[in-house]
Amino acid sequence: xxxxxxxxxxxxxxxxxxxxxxxxxxxxxxxxxxxxxxxxxxxxxxxxxxxxxxxxxxxxxxxxxxxxxxxxxxxxxxxxxxxxxxxxxxxxxxxxxxxxxxxxxxxxxxxxxxxxxxxxxxxxxxxxxxxxxxxxxxxx
Amino acid sequence: xxxxxxxxxxxxxxxxxxxxxxxxxxxxxxxxxxxxxxxxxxxxxxxxxxxxxxxxxxxxxxxxxxxxxxxxxxxxxxxxxxxxxxxxxxxxxxxxxxxxxxxxxxxxxxxxxxxxxxxxxxxxxxxxxxxxxxxxxxxxxxxxxxxxxxxxxxxxxxxxxxxxxxxxxxxxxxxxxxxxxxxxxxxxxxxxxxxxxxxxxxxxxxxxxxxxxxxxxxxxxxxxxxxxxxxxxxxxxxxxxxxxxxxxxxxxxxxxxxxxxxxxxxxxxxxxxxxxxxxxxxxxxxxxxxxxxxxxx
Lengths: 140, 297
Known about the structure:
The complex is a heterodimer of chains A (140) and B (297).
Chain A lengths: L13 H8 L2 E5 L2 E5 L6 H14 L6 E6 L8 H14 L3 E7 L4 H14 L4 E4 L2 H12 L1
Parallel strand pairs in A: 2-3, 3-4, 4-5
Antiparallel strand pairs in A: 1-2
Chain B lengths: L3 H17 L7 H6 L3 H69 L5 H31 L8 E4 H11 L1 H7 L3 E4 L5 E4 L1 H18 L5 E8 L2 E7 L32 H11 L3 E7 L3 E9 L3
Parallel strand pairs in B: 2-4
Antiparallel strand pairs in B: 1-3, 4-5, 5-7, 6-7
């Protein structure tokens, strides 16, 4: 199912929620991909982070690639919630690799947001493959 | 020719100026048009800073509005509850006042019954005072407090309060001395002045540790004042301003009952009269509360 470029809320249909949750998946042991939605909302943020927490349950250390290509710049409210959600995972996060492609605005925002959130290990990457490799290096 | 760095510095300063007054003209397109990654990050950072500040302001406003609504609901509840409570209490007082006469007629008024009747009356008086305080809070917070001035003698008003408290003071072990003064005529709201003096004197008895209490009145040009002095537990310096605020108490609620409204109501009443209320106090040495109000003869 195609996720539209609009903020999803609590009124999302069951198949939409399933499609949103499916944007977070396990690549290999301790390594996940988080394919961010085009327009982030508090609802989607919680949904996707809940899914990430489910997948990472029981792991003392893990890393994930967050694909931010095609994503609109998040507003202050979403950034604040993002910080809260990441704070919960941060002690177990070995690395976060943001895939920003050629979007210079998202690259700048991701770097600043990562600084504000306080990731212990963070890289900006051009492709998902690069991001996965950065995570693998951190997990070794 | 200006260097790229100079241009960036000027741009940043201009945007900081905008942000300081709640505006920001930076757009995603402007960020993307910057020549290098550092400049893009600086501009994006300024835009995010502006958004964070605006979001913080909006949240603050929303919280403030929520708080106002909660206070309004509380005041509404106070208003309704206090007025609803007053009606049955009034009936209760009338019935209690009539009981001794009825019992006497039936030959059933012995000493024990009289003592019990007095206890009931004291508790009903306490209840009445509490409900009156709530009604006053409701009037004050809704801006409906009005004064009804008449030509009266301040000395007489305060003296009658002191006389009324004679028995209570005696029961607490305190001697109560009224420092007599020649009449001070003026335009006063008699019941409200009485209420303030009553509050101060009841506090003096409550916190006076059974030690002597003095009450006095003074005139000073266009102003006049009355004071209540006790030698009781006193008030620590850090609490001396706080006690005039709503629901604030300096004495521990485990030892001394009360809503923490009396002095706040007194302050509101005195200020409505155009006066001031103040306290001088030392722990374990006692307190002197002074009320100064305009004379207006």
